[in-house]
Amino acid sequence: MAPQDRLNQVSSHLTFPQGLFHNQTVIVTGAGQGIGAEAARLFANEGAKVVVADIDQVKADAVVKAINDISPNRAIAVVGDVMDATYIDTLVKKSAEFGGGKIHVIVNNAGFTWDGVIHKITDKQWDTMLSVHNTAPFRLIRAAAPYFRVKDKEPRVIINISSTSGTHGNAGQANYSLAKAGLVGLTKTIAKEWGPQFGVRANTVAFGYITTRLTAAKEDGATFVAADGTKVALGIPGRKPSSSAQGSAVTAHNDIPLRRPGSPEEAARAIVGVASPWFSYVNGETIEVTGGRNI
């Protein structure tokens, strides 16, 4: 497709009365809750057919129901573990069937943390973080290649979800930080390989402090149970303020210029925005969504 032809599709004089993603099929992994669930809803609100990919059947079905109650037949759930190569093939197959033979957007959002200081991280902790944050996104992108390496003049976008732990490092998260940094290299490579001939855009969105189960107080007791039954405690130790703590919320978030964490919906808006036609000339970039933290 000629560059000017693609530009004309998203020219500033165009409007999108049926939504920014009308007639497009979007896969969002880890869409059963948090940022992924909000992204799925926002994509659907903008006209997309959304595939809710998650390991939790109950949560995935709840997100699909919430979408379809408003816009019937707009979403389906494809449940499984992204670390299972067989599931990845199933996810791509069912997504393409749902999308009438096409897939337009992939959001690699699924993941969790399994923290530990460098000298105590186990091989299983290390390998699991690379598997869920690097190998799984790669496998999904590779499996979906036949639906992205096409010249049908329709937009194709890949969004890989990273973290400021990947762009700046974070004590206690060597495994997670390495994996999230790896997504940046994967994104740039996709942009260079699939951009010139097929017009595929690939960008990384790196989140700072967003209020999810991964950033809540570890004392709250949130856990992730892997497919093999391994239970991983989630959250940050000491995040919950003590009853004797002094100071305001401003003090608690004084490293964030906006003086507050972001919400899952705000995070999802960034994903949908970067995937949208309004970002048609943004490619191979890492966009930090942090409220100004680390500037």
From TrEMBL:
What residues does the Ketoreductase domain cover?
24-197
In this chain, the stretch annotated as Disordered covers 238-263
Any idea which UniProt keywords this protein has?
NADP, Oxidoreductase
Q: Which Pfam families match?
A: adh_short
Compositionally biased intervals (Polar residues): 241-251
- Sorted alphabetically, which PANTHER family does this protein's record hold? 3-OXOACYL-[ACYL-CARRIER-PROTEIN] REDUCTASE, SHORT-CHAIN DEHYDROGENASES/REDUCTASES FAMILY MEMBER
Homology family:
Belongs to the short-chain dehydrogenases/reductases (SDR) family.
Q: Could you tell me what this protein is called?
A: 3-oxoacyl-(Acyl-carrier-protein) reductase, putative
Taxonomic lineage from the root: Eukaryota, Fungi, Dikarya, Ascomycota, Pezizomycotina
